[in-house]
Amino acid sequence: MSGEIDRSWRDPELLVKALPSVILQTAFFLAPLLMTVALTFQQTKNYQLQWTWSLFVWTDIFSKGHYWTILGHTLFMAITCVILCLVIAFPVAYALATRVRAYQNHVKVLITFAFLTDATLKTFGWVLFLDKNGAANYLLQQIGFPPAVVDILFTDWATMLGMVYNLLSFAIFTIYLSIDAIDRSLILAAYDAGASKFRAFWEVTLPLARPGIWAASVLIFLLAVGVFLEPKVLGGGKSPMSAELIRQTFETRVNWPLGAALTLVLMTVAVFVVLLFNRVYSLKRHMGPV
Amino acid sequence: MAYPTPTPWMNAKTEARVANVLLYGSVAAVLIFFYLPIFTLIAFSFQEGRYPTLPFEGVSLKWYGALFENSGARDALYNSTVIAVVATVFATVMGSAAAIVAVRYKFRFRLPFTGLSAAPLAFPQLLLGIVLLLWFSVLGRAFDFNTGLVTAIIGHVVYITPFALVIVAVQVFNFDATLEDAARDCGATTFEVYRYVTLPLLWPGIFSAGIFAFLLSWGNFYLTYSLAGSTRTLPTFVFSGIATGSSPLYPAIATVVFIPGILLVILADRTRRKAV
Fold this sequence. Notes:
CATH superfamily of chain B: MetI-like
Oligomer: heterodimer
Number of strands of chain A: 3
Number of helices of chain B: 11
Structural class of chain A: mainly alpha
Strand content of chain A: under 5%
Order of helices and strands of chain A: EHEEHHHHHHHHHHHH
Helix content of chain B: over 70%
Number of helices of chain A: 13
């Protein structure tokens, strides 16, 4: 609806609005990132950073399987989390866009509030809920279950539960926006052409909601590879994921170059996975109906 | 609309019923899922006994009293408030301005500009925190300062500005630019156009961006944890409490952290409805 205005990039009105954000992200996002790259070519001695350019850290990373096992585990957890989030979020987003008209705003407010509440607190809440002597077991015991039926705290299952819990809202909102934007008349046209509700959904709604599904997948995946709270608090730190490894490298081992290199490896691999999926996805589209 | 069609495996009525059960059911299930840990925390904060276990020894508000006598918790409350207020102002103003630029103007560096301004959105917070911590450590050595309140605020602004940008951008998309032209034709100056046309029309978006920004900062753990040095906010205070063994004091803090959230979300909903 809004008309786009042609402007020179040197236009003062534009610069006033654009520069603060540009300066902020250059000084405190881009510059630190570049410095992180530079740091990976340094070394530490006795917990002190030495500015001597070498490939020491990189040869270390590529010669030890340990880092890669953890990375593999992280990717597996992240991809599982993406799939679970999509499966759970889709019906909710669809219902929000098409069904719960009267309560739609209330549901949206409730989801927003849960999303904006700090992850540490909610994760702590899960610990109290899932604990052997926690709320879940207590309630189940009251209705006749044997004690301590729920015993998943400090396992990968609990980690996954926490990850899905903390990232699900991203999927719900992104997919909701894409479904909400679909032109109703296209679906009505499908009905007129004799399609059943299910078929109209399958051949009209779903393909049109794809950008939202794709955006949600990328966002959740990128955030999921960086989780540290869930594996630590809910998973009990038993099977560490990359972010926890990175944090330990910085805090406990005080090895900045190694930590910086591990950070870069994680981000690069994550972006690479996204590009790979994107590639497969667009290939499939060109080769025939999905 | 509901056109009767021959279906191979279900008639239209059953199909609709199954779909409805599935859809309403999923909404209900997800809401329960979202609020389970939150209600668990709130419930445990009223526990009388020494440990957060069931069954309750009694219901009391004594942990809330203990909370306000605990100087660590008071400091944390103060720090959280300062960081959130300052970060909200900066992030909302910068994000709104950047949103207008990204959506309204066509210019040479539009794509790199939008990419750079929105990039931290898809960057894991913990890693952003670490990268910034390294940066502040190097700068701190050069200019002799330590991480603390200010570095935490900078971290929050970097992370939250892109959120504000996206939220305001949605509002800018639906903005009718001819209204600005009309004002200009009537002789309004650039400032007047902004003051009386642009800002009022974008206000709902800017307002929700502000509330979002406040809550993201208020409840932020990862960035504060990396960047605040020895300064504690409510979330990092709770985290240190989980590590050292729980007492119902921490659920009580958690409940206190929820309160501004609930109030602001309700307020935002009210204003939005008035605007519509």
